[in-house]
């Protein structure tokens, strides 16, 4: 079949793009690339570039072409995204079936609409569900009753490469559209291969540099801050590193599969949490806020662990929130999994209005939450998974009225530099060097598209006095 991107002229009123939505040129190119690939493929688009509206525009083209008996299924990783997609679908004249939570709340309506669809009583049925619900046998059995053409939009498609989620990749979906800023699964070649095979690979690529150069996202300054592990933290880091080495050796070295080695997985998580909760980070954070004239619209990403080496200590996010309130006299609230959906929505509204200066979070702001008002972000903790920091960066760069650019402060954890590398054992030196290498991988990615060089002194933005160059030099990490 040959498809062309054209302005909709269909008389069908059940799923039409509103006149006031005008796709940007790159969005039109994305849609056309997907149509040229016979209605299958993944759109690799930077966070904040309008993947949702692009996907709905593409689906409206298919609906025009199919004309009747068209089933559209939109699968998302989290429940709050179901509601976000439903809100966007209203602009297209659609009241979708929201298939999540209790089945008795949506199963009867879904069955009724599919019956109407099969009997040509309605032209289109739209379902928004979660990856988990879609992978369930009961949901699949119901959807397979549709006798017309069907389409799957997989939001944050990388999640669907997980073993259980793959069950939702039904052969019955004739049209397949995957969306992600990070389509490749981290350390999961098999999952990535399954996604590429099912969707047909990436058919359109619009990365961060393209988005910034094209004006779809704002430019940003990137300010790294060096934080040292204290003596007891470094001791615990070395203990965990030695344990990880032993466990990896038993599990097959670099080929070790984490899912099959819970002890190794636990040790890696503990070490990552230790890096994320280094004590000096909070002191530095307070110092930086003291230099800021207007702290409004700021995000602080915290660790999911406890402060320091004590696993029974106060949660890092709680201590961070408390210090910013008490020491910096700021209006601060937590935005975590412990807050219910209604509370989160209220927090976002207050944040947008400027009634809350700072939101502290762990992972709840990583995917699918629109917070374009954000001007500044402090990243106290980050995983080594590129997907996390790519998502965070794109979320901070979204356009908003009165916003000219964004600022990202990144806290880089290194060993105690008071201890000279030449005084270390080979094992200790290798462990410290690896820690720094992992941190610098993130620095390189963030710095690549920033307005400033990471060692630059940026006027008007609080910085630390330490530079990365000296650390790289000490551990022989300078590149020619």
TrEMBL record:
Gene3D superfamilies in alphabetical order? P-loop containing nucleotide triphosphate hydrolases (3.40.50.300)
Q: Where is the Helicase C-terminal domain?
A: 284-444
Q: Name one GO molecular function term.
A: ATP binding
Per the record, a Pfam family? ResIII
Q: Which InterPro entries match?
A: ATP-dep_DNA_Helicase, Helicase/UvrB_N, Helicase_ATP-bd, Helicase_C-like, P-loop_NTPase
Entry-linked SUPFAM superfamilies: P-loop containing nucleoside triphosphate hydrolases
Keyword annotations = ATP-binding, Helicase, Hydrolase, Nucleotide-binding
Which residues are in coiled coils? none
Domain Helicase ATP-binding stretches: 32-201
Query: Per the record's keyword annotation, is Ribosomal protein included, yes or no?
Result: no
Query: CDD domains attached here?
Result: DEXHc_RE
The entry's protein name is DEAD/DEAH box helicase family protein
